[in-house]
Amino acid sequence: MDKGAPNIAILGAGVVGLTVADILQKDLGKANITIIADKFKEDTTSAVAAGIFCPGSSFRGATREITHKWIDDSWYYWQDILKSSEASNAGIMELSTYIFARDNYELTKNPLLEHLVSNYRAAREDELKLCGPGWKYGSYFTTVKIGCDRYLPWVERRFVDKGGRIVSGKVDSFTSLRQYDLVFNCTGLGAKYLCNDFDIFPLRGQVIRVKAPWLKTAFFCDYDTYIIPGMDGVTTLGGVRQHDNSNLQVCKYDAHAIWQQCCEILPDLRKAEIIGHNVGLRPYRVPVRVEPEVIGGVKVVHCYGHGANGVMSSPGTALNAVKIGYDYLKSNIRNKL
Ligand SMILES: Cc1cc2nc3c(=O)[nH]c(=O)nc-3n(C[C@H](O)[C@H](O)[C@H](O)COP(=O)(O)OP(=O)(O)OC[C@H]3O[C@@H](n4cnc5c(N)ncnc54)[C@H](O)[C@@H]3O)c2cc1C
């Protein structure tokens, strides 16, 4: 531990907390950084996510410009890893994707993504038949997928290898963290209680994971149905978006509906081995909260409430949070930097 360097705590070891830690460590080599969390890796919401880079229309920062910057910064962050020799270890891959709709071409467009990918285009007539009859509108593009089963352990290992500390435990108030010069609050849904924030709520999701090594393309169709292949031949089938539902148990009715809908779209899925069912509570908040606050004398930078897009958008919001934190530290009278 470097006694002259600032002490920084990051609350949360989901994709947001770990990505903040990674960026912070790169920027502030001299700091003592500790991650504190009560859940890690496969026990986090992040591990349930399909992890596709496909921003939803409800994903928002405080302004339109901020939203665009977060998404653009995130895209280039993932592209850098994708182009590196670490891509596979980190679980980052390219993914061809179709969005199909029966009623309206606009539903298949994505204004937050179209300028980033090089090949966003309308689906051709033959492509509209890939998921059975009745699909009148479609778009095609190539995006990235972040597999949290690999990314979380990879980025955690990188953090520890560079001298980061990890502490397991639940934090009940910020005032218990007075020994830190700065605290990043990346607690996802946990912020509801920690910050008494009534603007964040659970958006329940459920998925089925299947072994379908022949699938190389992702599909989004009506009724929130998606089929998203990943590494190791594992495909994620979803899904549901249930507002203000905190039930973490697998619901057999949801599982049945997901299975039927996905098999209707791609009948070959009936041959796939089911590996498991997962439930996660998306930390839904509009806007996502990235801002500073002094709580009981502790300097806090919030970075939570990423809803259905927290995996893909974690680097952009993390870069923003780290910049705020850096300015905070510079204004610190003790200025240890
Ligand atoms: C079914 C499903 C599919 C999804 N698909 C995608 C997708 O394709 N693309 C995408 O970008 N996103 C997707 N998401 C959304 C994504 O999973 C979330 O936005 C993201 O995981 C949020 O990350 P987080 O780090 O904020 O939260 P979490 O992963 O929940 O991590 C929160 C961390 O904070 C800790 N914590 C909380 N409170 C405390 C406390 N008081 N004390 C100590 N530690 C605390 C927890 O232990 C945990 O370590 C999906 C989500 C679901 C459920």
TrEMBL record:
| Record keywords, A-Z | FAD, Flavoprotein, Oxidoreductase
- Which SUPFAM superfamilies does this chain map to? FAD-linked reductases, C-terminal domain, Nucleotide-binding domain
Domain FAD dependent oxidoreductase intervals: 8-318
Q: Where does D-dopa bind?
A: 226, 282
Task: Enumerate the Gene Ontology biological process terms.
Answer: D-amino acid catabolic process
**Cofactor(s) the protein requires to work:** FAD
The domain of life for this entry's organism is Eukaryota
**Chain positions recorded as FAD binding sites:** 45-46, 171, 187
What is stated as this protein's family in its record?
A: Belongs to the DAMOX/DASOX family.
| Protein name, UniProt field | D-aspartate oxidase
Tell me the name of the encoding gene: LOC113519098
